[in-house]
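Rotation project, supervised by the postdoc (A.L.). Task for the rotation student: set up a whole-complex structure prediction and record inputs and outputs verbatim in this book. Inputs entered:
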Amino acid sequence: MTWTDSQSWASSLMGPTPLAVSIAILLVLTIPLFLHLLIYRSTTSTTLPSFLLVGPSGAGKTALLTLFERGQHAETRTSQVPLSVEVSLPVSTKAVSSKYRSVNDPSNQAHKKFLLADTPGHGKLRHHAFDSVIKPQNLKGIIFMVDAADMSMGTSGAGNEPLHQAAEYLHDILLLLQKRSTRSKTSKAPRELPVLIAANKLDLFTALPPPLVKTALESEISNVRSSRATGLLDSGIGMNDLDIGEEKEWLGNGGDGKFEFSQMDEVNIAVSVAGGNVLGADESDVKQWWDWIAGNL
Amino acid sequence: MLDGFEILTTSGVVLWSKSYAPVSSSVIDSFIRDVFIEEKVLPGASVADDTSATQNPSYKRDQYTLKWASVKDMGLIFVAVYQSLLHLSWIDKLLDNIRIIFVDLYKDQLRKPHTSVVECDFDGYFDQQIRELESAAEKNPTRIAQPLLAELTPPSSSESGHEGPPPPLPGLAPGYLKKQQINGDSTDASPIPTPDTSRPSTPAAHILAGKSGPKGGSRRARKAVTNPANVSSGDERKAKPKKETGKKMRRWDADGLADEEDGAVLDYSAQSPQENGAAKSEYISGVDSIDSQSFGTRTTKGQFVLKDLDSEVHSILEGANEKKAQSSSSKSGLVGSSLGAISGLFRNVVGGNVLTKEDLVKPIRAIEEHLLNKNVAREAAVRLCEGVERELIGVKTASFESVETTIRSAMESSLRRILTPTTSLDILRSISSVTSPSQLNPLSPQPRPYVISIVGVNGVGKSTNLSKLAFFLLQNRFNLLIAACDTFRSGAVEQLRVHARNLKELAEREKLGKVELYEKGYGKDAANIAKDAVAYAAQQHFDVVLIDTAGRRHNDTRLMSNLEKFGNFANPDKILMVGEALVGSDSVGQARSFNAAFGSKRRLDGFIISKCDTVGDMVGTLVSMVHATGIPVVFLGVGQHYGDLRTLNVSWAVDMLMT
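Outputs recorded:
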């Protein structure tokens, strides 16, 4: 079989046979369609932006989650597993990404949705939260909930166990976030990741106002940092020969002096504090938290 | 009488709850913490598909007793709360039935991702179950193990509780039922034995169900006269009554139930005739029993409004039993088994395999062997493996994941959970909070020395670890007093004296804190010396008192009994037990006896595991000791020098154990 043979398949394919023509037309018509589908399918299947809820047990994380999802809070108990739900912004708040959209834009609805991931706050189950901080999927921000009513006045020094627990947890989370930027291989700074410290239960009489929550946490984190600095080494270090070169890392400005949340700006972590209450005698007040979420969506 | 019943998810959302008396939410919170997270109360030894209530030990808190059942793959927990004084024999049955009904009704909603909402209108079903089980318990007390007298008490107490404001009590049921009994042999009771007898998941369930069928029929014989079409049983007639019951349910739903539910329920009842069509001759008897039931409820419909709900509930329960029976009987065929084996092999590679006990036996055995090789005590290894097995049965493996990797990751996470401490172990902070309490708060206590005492078996390195700890505290500029309370072994005081001298020299050279030895020679009572030492330290403004004690064998009751007095006299803030990493199975016994030795009020606060450098990666002792007591590991001794003390890094330990 040669090229000159008029009966060979190659020459018949080149010839103006109806079959060849129809195949050509089919290809011409379908390729653009196929490409269109391919490109647009891949963009629409991206995951929703997500926010992570962390904080010590009993701060009100799951209650906030149900409140955001349903508009009213449900009864909750101690969580054991993480849970993520799809939440859309309320009508009154508008996401910052849709600032320039028309009110009548039909895609507004889609841009108001996000995933809210709840994590258990019990001491033994915090690895869930740490895992999702290390491997984020389109993570837009972290909400750290604290029980403002539990950090009683005047004892911001030693002996305030709930405050210490919260500060230690927050310290660990911030340290992980800092490592994310200092350990990265590229010189490019990682994307900015905002952290909201949500002071919950402000309706209670004993609750500290948000600015005081901030200073209490800052001073307690300084304590945690200094006691970590003088503490013993981890068993992991020095016992395997692999990571002997790795040094311990300190949060903030090299780990001395007083810790302030503004020190985290250096590694692209913006920490803000806002108050509110999920439950309450009158009704819940979560407006500030919605605004924060909308501002980062 | 029941105080409350809750259906909640493992993620912490309460899906449905009913309370007859106010129960503080902290009761259930602490129940979750102790049973599921910290595993202080170990579940029963037997392993079931979904843990049913009978196998779970009850949990007691305050004056309440909690019974529970769970569905793992959906993450549901069913909890019943009642006063400990009462003896409710039907609670287990209630939990199991509610579990089956709830899962069946709302399984579609429960499987939905990214939502915590389950719209359920469950009150009717729950009340029906309570009424039914209560009446069953009242009618035939012989079936329940309790004596008659004890059986009579719950209704009376229920009557007293029933005066309270909360929603209509199930306590109403007895009176309501008595009226029925007077009227004649009520049909109410017959449905209950039926699910009960067909409960066992053996193939024999068909025969049992078959037996119960005719019995129910005979009882209803006089009513059946009115409707002769249903008396004769046959294959063609079967479809007809089915349809009629279906219609009836729909009518009832129009009254109050959500529309989507009736679809699921109807679907369910329609399913059973299909299955029967496939294997006619085998299941005829089972079908007959359903038929006669739906027929019975229909005739009594004029009398009881809630009868429809009954029939719906019973068909769900029946269906669950039948499914169970079928799944157990379907395995017997030769062709079926070989096909199953092939598809099982395939699924093992691809994933998506629903794990059964048989799948798990071999890999679990392998991992148990692995743990034993890592020097985990046998008892701890067995219990860990049982825990993992319980966790995994009924779980679907992820795609492209074999059974082995699934078990491995489950074991890793359970090891991690065990080793992670519940509270912060920052010893420096707790010392400074005692020695220099905050000045701002007028209520804070006076500064006093912080007392740490160290106990352990002979020769594990108590004195060595004490001096390592002393060195660490000196570096943090604390003033130490070392109390030599080993008044028994010759040379013990001299050994500490050498340590104290070395540390003093080190401290002076590097301008650290000061250290002193408090000794009173040999032969005296250790508890008294410890007490004197603490008093002396308070007088001389020392920050920390470290008390060394004599080594004692944990099975020597005479020596161990001294510890209680010692604990009372010295009143240490922290009692640390030193255990060596070299010890094997004995570690469990050591940890338990030392933990129990300080009386009922005092426990150990932590372990120091010494000689970790000598065992390489066989650090199983860590797990054995923590697993036996739930007390965290505070320090590890990793060498001969004063600086060789480390805190535990959990992921390092888990890595060591799993490689």
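Student's summary: The helical segments of chain A are 9-14, 18-44, 61-70, 127-134, 161-182, 210-230, 287-296.
Supervisor addendum: Chain A is about 35% helix and 15% strand.
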